[in-house]
Specification:
Largest sheet of chain B: 2 strands, antiparallel
Strand order of the largest sheet of chain B: 1-2
Number of strands of chain B: 2
Radius of gyration of chain A: 21 Å
Largest interface: A-B, 45 and 43 residues
Number of domains of chain B: 1
Strand content of chain A: under 5%
Distance between the termini of chain B: 53 Å
Strand content of chain B: under 5%
CATH topology of chain B: ABC transporter involved in vitamin B12 uptake, BtuC
Oligomer: heterodimer
Structural class of chain A: mainly alpha
Shape of chain A: globular
Helix content of chain A: over 70%
Distance between the termini of chain A: 26 Å
CATH class of chain B: Mainly Alpha
Number of strands of chain A: 4
Amino acid sequence: MKRFDDLHRHLLIGLAIIALFALLPLVLTQRYLLGEVVVFFIWAMVATNWNLLMGHAGVFSLAQMLFFAVGAYGMAMGVTFTGMSIWVAIPVAAISSAFLALVIGMACLRLTGAYVALLTYAIAEMVHILIITDTECFTMVRNNCQQLFGGATGFSRFDDFGFRPLLKGNWILGNYYTVLAAFGLTILSVVCIIHGRLGLAFRAIRDNVGYASSRGIDRKTYQIAAFALSALLTGLAGGVYAAHYRFAGPSLFEFSTLMFILSMVVVGGLGSTWGPLIGTGIMMIVVELSKEMGDARNLVLGLALIVFVVLMPRGLAHLSTTFARRLNRAGRSGKKKSEP
Amino acid sequence: MDVLSQILITGLTLGSMYALASVGLSLIYGTLGMFNMAHGLFMTIGAYASYSVAMAFGIPLIVGILVAMATGALIGMLTHLLMVRFMLGTADFGTNILVATAGLGILLEDLVLKVYGGYPYPQPLKVEGVTRIGNVTVTYQALVVLAVALVLILGVAFLLLRTRFGRAIRATAMNRESAMLMGVKADTVFLQVMALAGMLAGVAGLMISTQATLSPQMGGDPLLKAFVICVVAGLGNVWGAGLCAFGLALIEAAIGYYFGVRFGFPAMLMLVILVLVWRPQGLFGRETVVRL
């Protein structure tokens, strides 16, 4: 049998995951649960992209939610102000997110390590502050003052995907498959990046910057490329989010939201391929449980981050690969013993 | 002239608070190589601790400052003993510790919220009254902030430059291994640095709360400014951080006066990015030759 290389193997896993989720509505019919799976898709897209940037390309950016917000706001503003179709607004928002990342990347990625983390965090926070302190009315919507960037309340009640009149009671299924398509596109592209030539370059830079650059792989260029690519897909997630919830507001910039996504990446495993998906599932369930036990969300997030970084810095994905390897080895040595 | 002195006074008050916060942050980075995302919460907790003691016993401001210092130092030491100690020297320490301290920050903020609630309290430890310098009104509290910051920063400078303890810290910051070979107990130094930085943060928190109110999120904004100050000064450069704190605060005050307060920080950040394009190692950072 022909051995698959990494890229094809992971692409097959990705297709299997997408197929599984495509069949899920056959067994899962409650609207609430389907809604939760849609939320899972969205957060998993953000976490996967952050892992691409942080775990593979080695850019420790804290502006991930900024690009998500640009996607969401771009889509909301496009629909609210220009009246463009939602199917045009989402790609436009994603592309503007990538452009913004290009500009921020060119300014910040002259630096490395903790400097990048601090500057990207400061920029995201600056945008947050500028948006919530904006009080100037741009237009009037339904006799309410509408600021250019939504002010402290943000945008809401704009057009969604438009499945409600089409599918009536089953509109959630329309949303489900649309978000699944975006999710599938994201995970397949990220797999192609990680296990393709770009990913090789990223790993070369991570392992030895000097050697990589002497072979023509410039750290800054490749990291800016990773920054823009991950912002493009994160912006897509943001646009889909805004369309699903019909909302885009400053709560997206909150520190606890950022930590929520970060905990998904860290728990799942930085630098792995499928870790963020595992992490997203686990953290969503854990946070849901912690909400029921009194409002302990942030406590649990903080604890999860500390415990995983201190005890298991490579996350659950690494744990499962070592476990599989050990099992494999045990199986092989068992076989050897059985055939004398 | 009046405008100028108004800007000068606002800038100096802001600058003293920023300096208290960023000197500690920079000290930790220089010695441990760790960026403390929980520093803002050290400030918040210092402020709340002195608030609680003041409400219970009605202490004067000077005792309040001591309480804030002690609480900050305690928190800093606990952070080191319970968390940082186990991570020192592990792979990817720089980024992992950022994640861990960010987690600690959100955890502590939630604890403060659970204990005190989200209602913004006024800080009782406050000197009332105003004086006039020329035509400009100055609150006594602003003068207190300035005096406290100057005394503490000079004190830290004295500790670092003139004592055995300070020499050990500077040696560890320069080269951890050689310092250890010379008989410096690096573990003790780390603990002392965390205590010292926590102490400064605690006082910074108390001072900030006298200018605004107490709330669980009060540390976020000064932390952000302290980040930017440390980055522009060059991470780990303690003197540069102190100077940049005053410089950037003056610029922020001037822009806040002429263009509106909401543009103060964005303008400051733009300036910082321009500076970094020109000097990536920061204004006071020395260019280092890295062996790849």
